[in-house]
């Protein structure tokens, strides 16, 4: 597997996604754009494609790290309550700082995402049994419980519609000036890459990590912090993207194994490719309208996830 | 357990149910009897129907799958119903069809698909419980995604009609549908009642059931068919509630440790009616919440589910 093939295809797809949409921008006109065309290109198309690439990479890498930290193949920001906790944070931010900037909201969402994930990790420590599926199952339930708390308060304060728009992952509202927060995840991804070796060791388990002289608790904490930052930023700027963090790392690790230094970049690139394709689909299926990309990701993601589950069980 | 004890518990529960119904029907009517009673009577009827269907179908499902964790809803049955309903509307929404025909089609398709799906899921004797649960939940997400997907593509007027059909929550039950389903519901309940001795045998395990001369395969299909029908009806009435069946069935096993389905059925049906009526009463009149009952049920059910998983130590299927 050469590194060049996926990267080239990602670049090609990203370019393709720039030229798809209601406002037609033919690719041959790229050097003589009209006023409108260049406006559309620079204020919505380019930001959209950039956030697609970044969000896809971020969520996949978060899932990968989470799987190493919990030593479980089926854990991800959606199946460990991280996303739902971040959503609870959003709600709290809306209730207490209604006039807060997007930064304040993200910060609150991040704090909740972190606490929720820590709570979940503590919860699965008490879990008995060696069953791989117990953890994500409890995770989904945990997420549902947190989600129902959110629904409950959102009902009380009539924020349901407002919240629903946060639940739906969609790139249709992305434009220049409201998406820049997503760049925060770029340094996060770089830090993840630097720590890849440590995360691989952590994935071998606590005793093993300590016996090779690593500060297990510290690395674990760093991992959780990174995941929480990444997930909450993506949730605030785009919305939820179900199962993306499970399927991409699993498919990549089936092909390339579990040494994170090798798999991390491939996971990131594949996540981006997947999301860019899903978004292109969401724009061409029913023009001139757009479907929320989370629907496409949810449908494809859950389908692939079931296949992975059945395959994993056969082993 | 002695018969005396069983009857005592049943009667106590019945009294509680009657008490809560009385409370629910008469609280703060301000002398507007006629108005309040018709309005609340409709809700009450819906609660009774949903309670009966949910409890009967969940308990028999748990008996044939031999697991107290699996319920039709947790395995995505009701999301499947929503999907079938949406798809039909999407393709035949514009052409005026008789509501009865539409409903029959809905339920028919639902039964066919769910029997296929769960026949596939429950195919092996020694299936991994967690795998099943996980697949069920993910399938639920999948069905919901596809339904939402179709709903986005729909004509807004069509969508409005569909919404009324799908989520006729507790507050605005579709009355025309309500009276239509009563005879069907009575039929289903009777059938469950008739086959309950056979279900009792299933408590001994599949091998024993075969030994005792039950045509296990055929009986399973028949029960699955009844269950799908029940889920379709109750989902059509009030929309999907994931955990109601789970809560009710498991509390029933705790309070009434018997193997006879007739007792279990009656007890759990009463229990679910009690929960729905009392829950609705509390949400509406005591807490004055503008939240829905299903949110509360979802929350408590989720907590109960996790607690049960932890306390069972995740090793047994029972």
TrEMBL record, chain A:
Example GO BP: siderophore-iron import into cell
Pfam families in the cross-refs: FecCD (PF01032)
Keyword entries, A-Z: Cell membrane, Membrane, Transmembrane, Transmembrane helix, Transport
Compartment(s) where it occurs, according to its Swiss-Prot or TrEMBL record: Cell membrane
Gene Ontology MF: a single term: transmembrane transporter activity
GO cellular component: plasma membrane
Membrane-spanning ranges: 48-67, 88-121, 133-155, 181-199, 219-252, 264-285, 291-310
Membrane topology annotation: Multi-pass membrane protein
InterPro entries reported for this sequence: ABC_BtuC-like, ABC_transptr_permease_BtuC
Family of the protein in this entry: Belongs to the binding-protein-dependent transport system permease family. FecCD subfamily.
Protein name: Iron ABC transporter permease
Organism name: Vagococcus martis
From TrEMBL, chain B:
SUPFAM superfamilies named among the record's database cross-references: ABC transporter involved in vitamin B12 uptake, BtuC
Domain of life of the organism encoding this protein: Bacteria
Keyword Translocase: no
Membrane topology: Multi-pass membrane protein
GO biological process, one term: siderophore-iron import into cell
Family: Belongs to the binding-protein-dependent transport system permease family. FecCD subfamily.
Name by which UniProt lists this protein: Iron ABC transporter permease
Taxonomic source organism: Vagococcus martis
